[in-house]
Amino acid sequence: MKTFKIGGVHPEENKLSAGAGIEILPVPEKVCIPVSQSLGAPSKVVVEKGAIVKTGQLIARGEAFISSNVHSSVSGKVVKIDEVIDTSGYKRPAVFIDVAGDEWDEGIDRSKDIITEIKLTREEIIKKINEMGVVGLGGATFPSHVKLMVPDGKKAEHLLINGVECEPYLTSDHRLMLERGRELMIGIKILMKGLNVNQAWIGIERNKPDAIDHLRKLSSEFPGIEIVPLKVKYPQGGEKQLIKAVLNREVPSGKLPIEVGCVVNNVGTALAVYEAVQKNKPLIDRVVTVTGKSLKKPSNLLVRIGTSVNTLIEFAGGLPDDTGKVINGGPMMGRSLTSLDVPVNKGTSGILVMSEKESFRVPVSNCIRCARCIHVCPMGLEPVLLAQLSENQQYEMAEKERILDCMECGSCHFTCPAGRPLLDYLRLGKNKVGIIIRNRGKK
């Protein structure tokens, strides 16, 4: 059975909401929409306080090469432009809107008709995806139009679609594959045309047999798209791990997938591409898994961007009394939230409510040199060494030891018997090394 070769772990899956169909969360009374919702430069606000906006209207323009447009997810009045603490825990500029009705931009096709014919040219597809603010919905939020702009000297040969969803608890991609499969497949064909490739592969772990069967049946109508069942192993959804599992190609250290002729997109991104190109709909909502063992109603919700996390939790039954942490994302790669008032953004795939017992960290003790972290690292790194270098502020040495290759999957942290906060130090080290490299480039 296909999988990646190096490292990996098997945490409990806890897919509590796998059987919960996608529900539409009612439009909130107010939203707070951050203008930095992609990997890259923040977007520039193009509306003023007091402006009346429609659902789907541009409110912030991505002017840098790696940036993305941001659109209003609701109709109403812009009450202020201020900073908000987002899911990262940092303050970001945001547009605050009081909702009035739900009046959509006239150019958006809101019909339920599925449009199969792709009329736009390759160049028009890239332009439309850019205009509609589509970013990677697997978590990284890299602007999707940039992935289609293959650098000179490189050639895209294969499009890989990530339907793995290996992070425990999360099920939003699973439900999309089951409920929006046909639009998803058309979105993949659009991406294939945008890349000028003839072959696409959808990697899905075998713990989703219903999604595998459903998309296999649909694939007979879409030549060039193949479904690839994969062994259940975390973090199979990483770009480099998925490429290794499906095509047996290895992306060199410090390089991108295009180096081996591959481009990787998430299933949610493919659906957003369909809506952008075929329906002229900006990325103003997304499916979010709201889950946890103590939660009354684990759910998959279609949520307007800018809705507060607290609104999602209330819809799912309210915050349980035994709550220890609320995490943006899953338990392996997610980050604890400092407030429930933070807004959902384009990268919010899940909200996990963990009990005090589940979220309790064992007391940190001395490293016993067991090397488990090394054995499970899917990137072939030495997490214990990198963590020590970061702890001791030896960032130049950490760079030489390839800390930037770390994908922050948390496998090392998960398996450490000494409870060492390895992932915390790795994230700190990556951030510091990134700053050093950027400053080096300015000289």
List key phrases describing it:
443 residues; alpha/beta; OB fold (Dihydrolipoamide Acetyltransferase, E2P); Rossmann fold; Ubiquitin-like (UB roll); 4 domains; six-stranded mixed beta sheet; 14 helices; 29% helix
How do the helices and strands line up, and which of them pair or pack?
Elements (H helix, E strand, L loop, with lengths): L21 E3 L5 E5 L9 E2 L6 E2 L4 E4 L8 E2 L4 E10 L5 E9 L22 H10 L12 H5 L9 E5 L9 H8 L1 H15 L4 E6 L3 H11 L5 E6 L8 H9 L14 E5 H13 L5 E7 L7 E6 L4 H7 L7 E6 L6 E2 L13 E6 H4 L12 H5 L6 H9 L3 H6 L10 H5 L6 H21 L1
Parallel strand pairs: 1-14, 9-10, 9-12, 10-11, 13-17
Antiparallel strand pairs: 2-8, 3-5, 4-7, 5-6, 7-8, 13-14, 15-16, 15-17
Helix pairs in contact: 1-4, 3-5, 4-7, 11-14
Say what oligomer this is: single chain
Computed Rg: 21 Å
Strand content: 15-25%
Q: Which whole number gives the mean pLDDT?
A: 96
How far is the N terminus from the C terminus? Answer: 49 Å
Quick summary of this structure?
The protein has 443 residues and is of the alpha/beta class. It has helices at residues 122-131, 144-148, 172-179, 181-195, 209-219, 239-247, 267-279, 309-315, 356-359, 372-376, 383-391, 395-400, 411-415, 422-442, and strands spanning 22-24, 30-34, 44-45, 52-53, 58-61, 70-71, 76-85, 91-99, 158-162, 200-205, 225-230, 262-266, 285-291, 299-304, 323-328, 335-336, 350-355.
